[in-house]
Amino acid sequence: SHLNLGILYKKKGAFEKAIESYQTTLAINPYHKEAHYNIALLYEQMGEFRLAMNHYQQFIKLSSESHPELVLRVQRHMNRLIQTGKVH
Questions:
Q1: What are the angstrom distances between the C-alpha of 82 and each of 20, 32, 64?
Q2: Cα gap 53→40, rounded to integer Å
């Protein structure tokens, strides 16, 4: 699967290829929660905070009922990013 390929690329430090794999996953299924979460983490690691926030928001929309504790953690994390001025 493209998601697993993205995870492998990320582990190897091939961030651009990882993003391509995650984007392919989302092109096939725009409702793929794990792909949104993983690409958000990667964008954040790369300093692309606005892109990360967009994907965190998508993850929250798709996961609020199935993963409420993780959603709460992601919301807190997003608030910290805003409070530290990384996202305006």
A1: 27, 25, 21
A2: 7
d(CA 87, CA 30): 24
12 in helix, strand or coil?
A: coil
Contact 36, 28 (CB under 8 A): no
Q: How many CB atoms lie within 10 A of CB 6?
A: 26
For residues 63 and 33, the answer to whether their CB atoms sit within 8 Å is: yes
**Residue 52 near residue 40, CB atoms below 8 Å:** yes
CA distance 19 to 60: 19
* pLDDT tens column, 9-41: 999 999 999 999 999 999 999 999 999 999 999
Q: What does the alpha-carbon distance between residue 25 and residue 64 come to, in Å, rounded to a whole number?
A: 21
User: Within a 13 Å sphere around the CA of 80, how many CA atoms are in the beta-carbon half?
Assistant: 7
